[in-house]
Design a protein that fits this description.
alpha/beta, two-stranded antiparallel sheet
Length: 461
């Protein structure tokens, strides 16, 4: 530490406020580790007090997952016959648990299902919420498998001091319509809201699995996994069993059939953001002890806040997020105020170039711009100083306006009747369905009308 020379107090200055005393009394920056839980996401703080971006390599080490490497991507394309999604190609979907085993099973014709979800905390979702859902739609299209989507209105009620149960349920109904507008196949997708499904007759098997998992899960496991303490309510401790039960096919006999012994062997692949991994670590720990297959997971990174890469986009902070309900003007204004990786002056920018690793508009393009060659052209031009920050923001604005605009058009086709059909416990259509003979009969006419109304949703996102 540099030495500070003692200087006398200036006339009229309170005693003790010398340069030396001020330097000695200044608070020292305390480094902080990044926090990644289902309830809190933030990057760390370094020894200088500066907030730092989320370190995903460190998360892989901490959580004990595996990186999705080039070898796995090559195998994915070979087994599925499909080019990996842009999020896979660019490392935005970066980590997994047992994805290789899912590919083994798919290669052998062994069925599996997809499961993802959302905790409804607001009327409108933002573009960060669509990332896991868009990727899940891609997986559903590629593998042609059934999908279960869980809307955890009860969880949001348990964890938020402000959200009422009625609010959470209303958010869930609205969010369901947003999720459907991503383009999921109604014949292969079941969406449920916890408070509806669990309390209804169709949720009996699900409830049984919740109780079995609840008995196997200890308070110490929950404390160790989530960091809960004595101030957390008992519903928060119990909820992980709810989220875990969805990962087991026996929870849905109306989809997979009543043969528990056979259905218990059907594996599950869960696409989710990395902050949801703690739920399924304890789920995987308990699965084999109760005769179930461990669920596999595939993790995505967070879409960063408009304010910087130190935290994720949040529905509770409108200035940090691009909502699916935002107008073109709102998107333009928000992107215009986004954190930039440009230099302080035009001359310096031309000399040193922009910093794409911290530039939020460029980071958003890596999520939403499909063309790999165009993305690379933009990166090179910006880093060479040939493209200025204003042009980068305009490019990002156009891409987001197109993305949100296309979503709004699809959203118009999602009526309450469409939503209610997705929410109805029913047989789904997929290879190996135990109800296949029924589906070839009267189900075709029943679904035909809804299929016509959902045609717009079938356009690739």
């Amino acid at each position: 530490m540099a030495q500070v020379a003692a200087v006398p107090d200036e006339p009229g200055q309170p005693p003790g406020l010398t340069a030396l005393s001020l330097a000695q009394s200044a608070p020292k920056a305390i480094p902080k580790e990044q926090i990644i839980t289902p309830f809190d996401v933030s990057g760390g703080v370094d020894e200088t007090g500066k907030a730092v971006a989320i370190d995903y390599n460190k998360l892989i080490e901490t959580f004990g997952s595996k990186r999705i490497d080039e070898e796995l991507l090559i195998r994915f394309e070979k087994v599925t016959g499909h080019k990996p999604h842009r999020l896979l190609r660019r490392g935005m979907v970066f980590s997994h648990r047992d994805l290789d085993l899912i590919l083994d099973k798919y290669e052998k014709g062994i069925p599996f299902f997809l499961y993802t979800g959302r905790g409804p905390s607001s009327d409108s979702m933002h573009v960060g919420h669509t990332i896991p859902f868009e990727f899940t739609k891609y997986l559903q299209d590629v593998f042609n498998v059934p999908l279960v989507i869980m809307l955890t209105d009860d969880e949001k009620f348990y964890h938020s001091p402000k959200i009422t149960l009625e609010d959470a349920y209303r958010y869930a109904l609205q969010n369901a319509m947003d999720i459907i507008a991503v383009g999921f196949d109604i014949k292969k997708t079941f969406i449920f809201i916890d408070t509806d499904f669990v309390d209804g007759g169709s949720g009996a098997a699900f409830n049984k699995n919740v109780r079995i998992l609840g008995k196997r899960t200890t308070i110490n496991q929950i404390k160790g996994t989530f960091g809960f303490g004595d101030s957390n309510n008992i519903a928060e401790f119990a909820f992980p069993a709810m989220q875990s039960a969805t990962a087991f096919a026996t929870s849905f006999p109306f989809i997979f059939g009543p043969d528990k012994k056979k259905v218990a062997k059907i594996p599950c692949l869960i696409p989710c953001a990395i902050d949801q991994d703690p739920y399924f670590r304890q789920c995987r720990d308990n699965a084999r002890q109760i005769g179930f297959v461990k669920p596999a997971l595939i993790h995505s990174v967070f879409l960063p806040s408009l304010k910087g890469a130190e935290t994720k986009m949040s529905a509770s902070d409108s200035d940090s997020s691009i909502f699916l309900s935002d107008t073109d003007k709102q998107i333009q204004k928000k992107v215009g105020n986004a954190f930039s990786g440009g230099q302080d002056s035009r001359e310096l920018h031309r000399q040193l170039g922009g910093r794409t690793n911290v530039d939020i508009p460029f980071q958003y393009l890596t999520f939403f711009l499909e063309d790999d060659d165009e993305l690379e052209r933009i990166r090179v031009a910006y880093e060479k100083g040939e493209m200025e920050s204003g042009e980068m923001k305009k490019t990002c604005t156009r891409e987001l306006q197109a993305y949100v605009g296309a979503f709004k058009e699809r959203r118009k086709a999602v009526t309450e009747a469409v939503r209610d059909e997705f929410l109805r416990a029913r047989h789904l259509e997929f290879r190996g369905s135990p109800f296949e003979t029924l589906q070839k009969g009267n189900r075709e006419e029943e679904i035909k009308e809804l299929e016509e109304r959902l045609q717009k949703l079938r356009v690739g996102v």
